[in-house]
Amino acid sequence: MSCIYSILEILDMLVLRKSNGSDAEQFAEKYGIFPAQGWGFVWLLVSLIFLVGAILAGLAAFKDNGSGSTSGNPSSAGTN
Prior knowledge:
Blueprint: H1 2-15, H2 23-31, H3 36-61
Helix pairs in contact: 1-3, 2-3
């Protein structure tokens, strides 16, 4: 959930350009490599990468092996 919040926060502060200064603007002033929107885009990409990674990790962790059994014990499949 925090990944989604960070994506929305980045969009709100840097794309929609709220009047309050952001940490991206401070990075832009201090390092000068990217403007504030550039830092926002970098952080947006990092957030999206972590979000996709978390989704893929969740899918891999709860992967269905196709046996139809929900328990980890294969001998109990089909018995009550």
